[in-house]
Known about the structure:
Layout: H1 5-24, H2 30-38, H3 42-53, H4 58-68, H5 71-82, H6 90-98, H7 102-113, H8 120-147, H9 159-171, H10 175-194, H11 199-218
Helix pairs in contact: 1-2, 1-3, 1-8, 1-9, 2-8, 3-4, 5-7, 7-9, 10-11
Amino acid sequence: MASAAPVATGYFMVSWVFGVAAVKLGYALWLPVAMCAFVYAGASQFSALALLAAQASASTIILTTLLINARHLLMSIYMAQALAPVGLTTSQRWLYGVGLTDESFAIHSHQLAHDEVRCGRELLAFNATCHLAWIAGALTGGWSVSVLASASRLKLDYALTAMMVYVMTSLCVSRGRLAAAVLAAGVALLLRGRVDSTINVFVASIAGCAIGICLNKRA
Length: 219
């Protein structure tokens, strides 16, 4: 799908780095590929990889993954309501939930709010394209370590940040949304200068959502 191309490209590059990192740590190629297929969570996968390398317990890895992905509970609750008009079956809703990511949530919630989705299969195709790109990236990255020694020295970890910036800027189509995005970014930078914690992302997101809701009510 053309609409999924920018996100899928970013996913491919990020998971390529993940595949390289996993194989360089001594893990077999099947591990990063399996994680991309069944876990499908960028930050959680990199965290789990670091914890595995540090020989952390399974409970620590599971709890860390749960905390990092807790935001998906809120995203799923919202999408459960937003998907009602497109007529997905129960099994298709479950399938959509498996493929729900930050990027697909941002894009699809915008499209659904503005009646830009013709049928639910478009959303499923979008998610499937991105997921396949994620798996392919890990497979290619892990394979390249043993074939191309220079590949592991490439610095491509900026891909995830660049992709998120693309998604955010593409959605800033009004002054209200731009204000919410700028405020969220400002809060994140302010907190980062004081406390280096992953909780900063949640606080900044809440601040951005709050200003967005206030501006929307005024409009």
